[in-house]
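step 3/5: co-fold with GLP
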Amino acid sequence: MKIIICNDYAEMSAKAAEIVRDAVSGKKACLGLATGSTPEGMYDLLSSMCKKGECDFSGITTFNLDEYYPISPDDPQSYRYYMNKRFFDKINIDINSTFIPDGLAADPGIECSEYEKKIAERGGIDLQIIGIGPNGHIGFNEPDEELIPLTHVTNLASSTVEANSRFFASPDEVPKQALTMGIKTILSAGRIIVLASGSAKHKALSKMLDGKISTMCPVTMVNLHRNVTLICDKEAYYGR
Ligand code: GLP
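step 4/5: write tokens
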């Protein structure tokens, strides 16, 4: 695993944005994208690079890791809304080439298998960005005795409902389920970039850096992949 330890969040975001810029410009690549607070700085930098003509998303397809279920794409808390407002509306990407599981799918099981098909039809994901939940989750693959390989419907851990309730009026309003890529979907990407900022991620990051694998800390699964880059700040790496 390649490890890049940055001084702070701004430097982490800049390094990640450079890697994405180099992976997309003038290419027909397929990007795997994440939500949460962690990639926001990277999206802002990529948006301004694109505005200045330093980055080109015209040939790019994207697949997001996950979406709450049920949730409307128009709901400001949905990941579709987040991606459109924070990123897709600001770059030169064809919105029809951006995929996020449908939070209103009538049959979520079918939606998940269709999602896998779409990824396969587009030749798989070249570069996957992931963040880490404070409990070590990736996408919405929560710590458990068993993990599911492909895109599936999942129940959110109570700690995740709690952690993500900061974006909602109250924990009661956080959807209790989600559609998420599975561990195999994530590990099938050609390259994985793990982003982590702040001391709340230190515990999960340390487990990942131990090099062992545990379903109780899903981010450790990236130790099975041959091309992973961790970009984190000092607080996440060393703790407080
Ligand atoms: C959510 C997402 C994850 C993300 C995690 C961390 O639960 N499903 O994909 O990595 O939050 O979020 P943050 O970056 O806000 O800490």
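step 5/5: annotate
The chain has a mean pLDDT of 97.
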